[in-house]
Amino acid sequence: MIHSSHPFTASFASRVYTSLIMAALIGFLLIVLQPFDTYASDMEHKIPKLLGYSLVSLLAYLCVYPMELALFKFLRKWTRWTELVTLISAGLTLSIGTYFYHHIMFSGPKTSLLNYLQFITSFSWGFIILLVPVIAYVRLQFGRKVLKTKQSKNDEIRIWNSSKSESIAVGRDELAYIEAQQNYVCIHYKDEQGSLSKKMLRNTISAIKKDLAFMVQIHRSYLINISFAGELKGTKRKATIMIANANVELPVSHQYHDEVRSSLQNRP
Predict the structure, then answer these.
(1) Is the pLDDT of residue 49 over 80?
(2) What's the average model confidence in pLDDT over 34-55?
(3) In this structure, what are the phi and psi dihedrals at residue 38, rounded to the nearest 5 degrees?
(4) Same domain, yes or no, for 44 and 86?
(5) Does the predicted model carry a pTM greater than 0.90?
(6) Residue 2 lies in a domain
(7) What is the number of structural domains in the chain?
(8) Alpha-carbon distance values, 78 to 36, 68, 72, 113, 216 (Å)
(9) Residues 6 or more apart whose Cβ sits within 8 Å of residue 217
């Protein structure tokens, strides 16, 4: 259960939106509700100082982004376990950032592990318990959004993962080929710079093929958009096909050789 797939998007913009929502919530709690009796304080610049907690929390959350992006690129998948690790890391980063801010702004005691733990138990833990579910929910909603390349929507197709929780939308003429990798498929498509980019989704070639009738199967692990196909090389028993304008050569199984050759001959 904990190792099942979880929606993920690598968009930095989604992290900024999430951090802004979190910062707004912290600001509302500290300034409007004032749970720590700050209404009784007559310190100078009270509201800007309280808003500082929001800003520090925002920056602390964004600091987690490089870590989770590197983790995603290394694992090439995202699960509930990695999402949990990220949320815990975000909570720890927020607590450390606000602890040092509190120490600097309000002349707290000398920094030490003991003082940090006391700060968490007396101040941070309530915010963390409140904020982590909010962050988790917002992240989930962004993860479920369709991950679109910047293509025209006129000929756009949408490829989903098996649980329908994540997808990618690309122009039909931009989709180059699809590669099976164990329980995942790797979608290779042309980005707006003209280079091949890729996106991993948890699904199977057979399921993808049912929704993309225009794609030609060349191997049990590959579907190809015939408009991207280059030269068909080799013999029927050991053939390969090139991807046009890319240094990519894909295998062609003998059982699909005739269909591939026919598709090449009959393409517009």
Answers:
(1) yes
(2) 75
(3) -70, -15
(4) yes
(5) no
(6) no
(7) 2
(8) 38, 10, 6, 32, 29
(9) 205, 209, 223, 224, 256, 259
